[in-house]
Amino acid sequence: MHAYRRCLLFLFLFLLSFKLALAKPIQLFLEKQNQAICGVELNVLAYALNDRGEVDAAFSGKKNVTFSSKADTKPCSFPKNLKFKNGKGIFSIKCRKEIGLNLVVEIEGVNAPTNLSASFVCRDVLAPFVEGIMIEAKNLITVKFSEEVEDESAQGCENYTAITNKREVHPESIEYHKDTVILKFGIEFDDDEEGYVEVDEVKDLSGNAISSGKSPTFKGDCGC
User: Which end of the chain has less Cβ packing within 10 Å, N or C?
Assistant: First the structure.
């Protein structure tokens, strides 16, 4: 009788393990959900298929994930975990600059092939803008951009106009520092003079031109 019960127990455990094995996904896939634009989240759908090629609804819960790539992934942010529901989960990637990635995603605790490749290029379509402005001396104004800009357009004196309550003037020379320029004018601003710098045609490294417009205001009384 004991031998018979042991056989039944063994058969039960075998069938249970077989059922669980079938429930586990044997393949995992990644699928892009939108265009990869720098500074904008790229949503990626991950889904698990069972041995019948169907989305495995039994695959659920939160999974730890790691991302690796031959490219430098430092400009990008990745989630630490991914929650699956009915065999599907969506995660987001955001990159700060134009970059091409061939990602390898590893999902912890999955008893199945877990190396998933996803190739995409983060396209920079966002134009730079003026983040800040500072008057360093009576004839020097520093302009800080939101990102690195190309040197040729950034050093065009005609692309900057200081417009104050007293005058409109272009700089005579420009000192370029990637995401910052120092404008040197042939005049000195008065203490009671205030205005802004209009920037035009300055481009980032992907060729996106700044939208023409006003910078933050400055005052000639800089204490310098």
Answer: N
